[in-house]
Design goal:
Residues 1-20 form the signal peptide. InterPro entries: DUF6702 (IPR046525). Keywords: Signal. This protein is of the alpha+beta class. The chain has one domain (34-166). 23% of the residues lie in helices and 40% in strands. It contains three helices and ten strands. The chain has helices at 2-16, 49-59, 74-86; strands at 27-35, 40-48, 87-91, 94-96, 99-106, 109-116, 124-129, 140-147, 150-156, 162-166. The protein is globular and about 50 Å long.
């Protein structure tokens, strides 16, 4: 049943991501890929711009507007602070910190680029993703892990916000 739910969300995602400001589904997608050669986890979190803007306005600054030419310099600071609070990563059972590399906007989506460096060996990875759970009760977060030729997807909801993948 869980597989069907994940498949439904993944197949529906192109329809959910449209050029309208209103949408009835609240979904983010976070892709975590292990780059063995670079010994790093490369992460892209995709979040609807209007949802992220709503969050930043409620949490940090009511005057912030995203994806405009004269966007506040504080946006990256707010995004970094929020993502570090709501996205937790454990590698081999130990908490690791990511670096916010930057962001870009495409269509209605904010793409946030993150990286965890110095990951020489990956035996397990655990992700806690609570992005936007504090703003939208219907929020769902898809986490896709691409590690050692394995691809695994998880659908995280407020009552189940952790996924774990072991490689032993």
């Amino acid at each position: 049943m869980k597989f069907k739910a994940i498949l439904f969300v993944l197949l529906s995602l192109p329809f959910l991501i449209s050029n309208t400001n209103n949408h009835e589904y609240y979904v983010s997608v976070t892709v975590v890929e292990y780059a063995k050669k670079e010994q790093s986890l490369q992460i892209i979190s995709q979040i609807f711009i209007d949802d992220f803007e709503t969050l930043i306005r409620k949490r940090f600054d009511e005057s912030i507007t995203l994806a405009i030419d004269d966007e506040s310099e504080m946006v990256d600071t707010y995004m970094t602070k929020y993502l570090k609070d709501k996205l937790k990563i454990l590698v081999n059972g130990k908490t690791v910190n990511f670096t916010f590399i930057g962001k870009e906007y495409k269509d209605d989506i904010a793409y946030c680029y993150l990286e965890v460096e110095n990951v020489s060996k990956l035996e397990s990875i655990e992700i806690t993703n609570q992005i936007l759970f504090d703003v939208f009760s219907g929020q769902q977060n898809i986490v896709r892990l691409k590690v050692y030729e394995k691809n695994k997807s998880f659908l995280l909801v407020p009552d189940n916000d952790v996924c774990l993948l072991n490689f032993n």
